[in-house]
Amino acid sequence: MANETEKQAAPKSDGNSANARDKVEQSARREALGTGLRRAYQKVLNEPIPDEFSALLDQLSDSNGDRKKE
Questions:
Q1: What is the rounded distance in angstroms from the CA atom of residue 62 to the CA atom of residue 44?
Q2: C-alpha to C-alpha distance for 8 and 17, rounded to whole angstroms
């Protein structure tokens, strides 16, 4: 509790500097998050399609072809 009170009571020497630093840190966090998400997505794209799913897609494709002929 004392630390919380001390933080609130301590005057900020330069609010603009703290704001700029916060923006830089936020930007760095966003960039790191974006990089991590892109890597994860790329790994998923590189995974093979499971056989069961591929078979279902083939069945769907075949059934759509039959409907077009009618």
A1: 27
A2: 18
Question: What pLDDT, in 10s, does the model give residues 28-68?
Answer: 999 999 999 999 999 999 999 999 999 999 999 998 866 65
HSE-CB for 18 with a 13 A CA cutoff = 5
**Tokens representing residue 41 in the block:** 């997505």
Residues 63 and 70: beta-carbon distance below 8 Å: no
Taking a C-beta distance cutoff of 8 angstroms, is the pair 56, 64 a contact? no
Alpha carbon 49 to its chain's center? 22
Encoded tokens for 69: 């002929």
What is the CB neighbour count within 10 angstroms for residue 55? Answer: 11
Q: List CB contacts of 18: < 8 A, sequence separation 6 or more.
A: 12
Six-digit token pair at 59? Answer: 């069945």
